[in-house]
Structures are given as structure tokens and as C-alpha cells.
TrEMBL record:
It comes from Aegilops tauschii subsp. strangulata (Goatgrass). PANTHER family: OJ000223_09.16 PROTEIN. Residues 1-18 form the signal peptide. This is F-box domain-containing protein. Keywords: Signal.
Length: 114
């Protein structure tokens, strides 16, 4: 939606997304700086959330109780902070691609080990 192009912060809760929905959402919100996903899940196998937004200004991503096996940050050049809270998988949830501005990563796992 056109209204989304003016947003600087967006929080989404209890939603299900397809494979490329998040990347498309970030790309369509040209001013978006902060995105929080809370209790959301992916519907497409293999449940890997891929974020490839080389032209976005997104600076902060928060994933709170997100139902996916992994998050691939392919190209997010302005990203400064990533938070993964209440991660269920026993595998490390994040794979980092091009994130040259990244300064802070917070990982919180219910699996208790990686």
C-alpha cells in the first residue's frame, strides 16, 4: 500500500508470510528503519527467511518468537542491530551476508545451546 511508503517503524504480530513477503515489504517501505516480527511464521518450505534488500535503509530487525528455521541476511547494508528472541531451533538462527554497518546482535534461545 502507498501509505506504507511513509512508515519508519513497523511491528507485525501473529501473521504468516510467504518466502519473499518480508523482502518485498521492506522494499516497498522506502523510509522503513525498524521492523519487528512477533509470533510470526513462514508458510513455505524450507522455512528459511531470506532478506535481500540492498537499497533499503532498514537499521533494526527484531525477530521475537518467529517460526522459521533460519534467517539469511543476504544484503542489508544499513542494518545496525539484529535481535532474535525466544528462538526454538538448536541451530544458530542467523546467516550473515552483506551487513557492513552491523554493530549489535542479541540472540536468546529456548534451546539453551548452539
Amino acid at each position: 500500500p502507498v501509505a506504507f511508503s511513509w512508515l519508519t517503524s513497523l511491528a507485525l504480530e501473529r501473521l504468516a508470510f510467504g518466502h519473499s513477503d518480508i523482502t518485498e515489504l521492506i522494499s516497498s517501505c522506502g523510509r522503513l528503519r525498524r521492523l519487528t516480527l512477533r509470533t510470526c511464521r513462514l508458510v513455505d518450505l524450507p522455512f528459511v527467511l531470506k532478506i535481500d534488500t540492498p537499497c533499503s535503509g532498514i537499521q533494526e530487525l527484531k525477530f521475537l518468537c518467529v517460526g522459521c528455521t533460519r534467517i539469511d541476511l543476504i544484503s542489508v547494508p544499513k542494518l545496525r542491530q539484529v535481535v532474535c528472541h525466544s528462538w526454538i531451533s538448536e541451530k544458530l538462527p542467523l546467516h550473515f551476508g552483506y551487513v557492513p554497518e552491523l554493530r549489535s546482535v542479541l540472540l536468546d534461545s529456548r534451546a539453551m545451546a548452539w
